[in-house]
Amino acid sequence: xxxxxxFDFDHTIIDENSDxxxxxxxxxxxxxxxxxxxxxxxxxxxxxxxxFVYLGDNGxxxxxxxxxxxxxxxxxxxIDLLGFIGENKQLFDCIIVSDSNxxxxxxxxxxxxxxxxxxxxxxNPAAFNSxxxxxxQHFHAHHCAKCPENLCKRKVLKEFLDKQxxxxxxxxxxxxxxxxxxxxxxxxxxxxxxxxxPRQGYTLExxxxxxxxxxxxxxxxxxxxxxxxxxxxYLKLLIKE
Length: 241
Hints:
Blueprint lengths: L2 E5 L10 H4 L11 H4 L7 H14 L4 H8 L8 H10 L4 E10 H10 L8 E5 L1 E3 L5 E3 L16 H14 L6 E6 L5 H6 L5 E4 L4 H11 L7 E2 L5 H13 L1
Parallel strand pairs: 1-2, 1-6, 2-3, 6-7, 7-8
Antiparallel strand pairs: 4-5
């Protein structure tokens, strides 16, 4: 009996967007208007690439970026929740599927000593190049019309589950914890026995309730959370059963 916990990262594990937080490193802690307005829907990774070039051009180094990123607050109750999962790893497999990047997530989890809680992190690959600039790439290519071109979380989840099945691992239940519009695609892949946990007042919750109103509700159960303590309470019930 094993459960799979799937976490988004920004506004779910941490209480901010890691990609916009990095702007605190920029001169006067803001971006020039031309750069700020250059984002095109579905092309966030390219937009972040331009921001990293701007930071590099302005002499922002890796250690300063790391110091800034590790000050991001965790969401209310999240430290308790991740501690609880860490103590019960024999019951929970735990993955992150995020549109952030490997460098940011790695820094933040290691600084708080939570990297061992997660079995795998699926996010855009990032690295510092030879000139010391942070570069980011697309996670994968996919054919899903609903998702940004660099990442379809449903595809990630499906491929992870297939790989686990090949290893002889199947899950009693999948619990998906997220907040954003790009979390809807994987939530719609969940089955009747699974649970979606959208963060209260965020896009994912709104999109799930719109689907219910248009009489095409998601198959899985839906439990809304505002503090990660709500998630922990549910997991405690789950392992008691």
